[in-house]
Amino acid sequence: MTESAGIYVHIPFCVRKCIYCDFYSITDLSLQNAFVDALKAEIAAAENTDTLHFDSVYIGGGTPSLLDVGHLAKILEQIHHRFHPAPSSEITIEVNPGTVTADKLRALHHLGITRLNIGVQSFQNAHLKWLGRIHTAEDARNAIDWARTAGFKKIGIDLIYGLPQQCRKVWQDDIQCAISFHPEHLSCYMLTCEPGTPLDYMRRHRQYTPLDDTQGYTLFETTRVELAKAGYPMYEVSNFAREDAGALNANRSRHNQKYWRGTPYIGFGPAAHSYIYPVRRRNHRNIHTYMADMHQGKRPVAETEILTREQQMIEMIFLGFRTVEGISLQRFRQISGLNFADVFHDLLSDPDIRPRISLTDDFCRLTFQGMALLDSITQMFVDRL
Question: What confidence score (pLDDT) does residue 1 get?
Fold first, then answer.
């Protein structure tokens, strides 16, 4: 029996690093030709995956739209030759508005890419400058318009909230501006300080103060309510998909749902991860080490891990609570051999936690109130294991 799976490709190039980003990327664009050759070799040499059926390809980064169309064509050609994704596959690429033109977006559509994730982050130039983005609000608007004109039927817009001087009204303006383009999908991320980033340095030196819990909850609720009213219900704590008549859930990210559901996926490129139950692999987080391994005919794997039962249970909790469906109790039982309600009886009956949790015969999920406290509630469940 085959199992639906995904393919992730990490393109590690950026014009410059944004202050909040901890994804692996470099700014030496002269390495693009050598990198694409190494990437094609890695895809061609991938392990046997005959038991898997692939129906999603996600090209992320970095800034994948920095690559020229010819490079992207070669990468997709190699993927199709090696894995034969289904004709109905969702093929996504992340796009920075400062790196595309109308002609380039038409060319990407012609390659067979079906979905764009456009990293707008804000429609306010002051915010874009503070974040270190290379594009302007006008660039963002143009990119969205060009994408639609190019023929893309699935467009996602990424936004960030929790920025300095971003009051509730300013954030609502960004949401409404995004909605005015009628995208199929919106991702709204709260700004977080990842260790080692410039933003974290700014926090530690008191040049930036993160939102407190009350401020964060207010903007989270504003996001959820505003988008629900506009026909974009939340399906994951940071993701919202437009509900179209006769096509329920059709605009959700097919690929990203694989991560949250524990579905197999294979990753290519530096720092890319792969997961085929119960094994997880991570590639070298260094383009030079990655390419050196490929030149020597070696797999560029930095770490291989066979997940224990406890690790799988922890991942189910961390990922499942992020989604509106929640944790599948049947899958929890299959992996752990335990009954979810028995393992977490004390938490499920705690008067402070119970109102933030919905428990049925099939799923345990967080209410919207609970999702606003996602990290703390999730940690309580993990600590019980």
Answer: 43
Query: Residue 123 in contact with residue 178, Cβ under 8 Å?
Result: yes
What letter does residue 130 receive in the DSSP assignment?
H
First to last CA, the chain: 32
- What are the CA-CA distances from residue 158 to residues 179, 186, 187, 194 (Å)? 12, 6, 5, 18
- C-beta neighbour count of 291 within 10 angstroms: 21
Contacts of 221 (CB under 8 A, 6+ apart): 368, 372
The answer to whether the CB of 374 falls within 8 A of the CB of 321 is yes
Report the distance separating Cα 348 and Cα 172, nearest Å: 35
State which fold the 309-383 domain adopts.
Arc Repressor Mutant, subunit A (1.10.10)
Beta strands in 215-316 (DSSP E): 234-236, 239-241, 265-268, 273-276, 279-283, 301-306
User: Would you list the domain boundaries of the chain?
Assistant: 3-258, 309-383
CA–CA separation, 265 vs 254, rounded Å? 12
Mean pLDDT of 189-208: 95
Structure tokens at 356: 């933030």
Closest listed residue to residue 380, CA positions, set 351, 353, 340: 353
Domains 3-258 and 309-383 are alike in CATH topology: no
Sheet of 327-328, strand order: 327-328, 363-366, 357-359
* Entry pTM: 0.96
Mean pLDDT of 359-380: 94
Which tens digit of pLDDT belongs to each residue from 130-182?
999 999 999 999 999 999 999 999 999 999 999 998 999 999 999 999 999 99
Q: CA torsion sign, 370 to 373 to 374 to 375?
A: negative
Q: Quick check: helix, strand or coil at residue 304?
A: strand
Compute the distance between CA of residue 368 and CA of residue 221 in angstroms, rounded to an integer.
Answer: 8
The CATH class that applies to domain 3-258 reads alpha beta
Q: Say if residue 92's pLDDT is above 70.
A: yes
How many C-beta atoms lie closer than 10 Å to residue 97's C-beta? 25
- In angstroms, the CA 92 to CA 253 distance is 9
Q: pLDDT tens for residues 222-280? A: 999 999 999 999 999 999 999 987 777 899 999 999 999 999 999 999 999 999 999 99
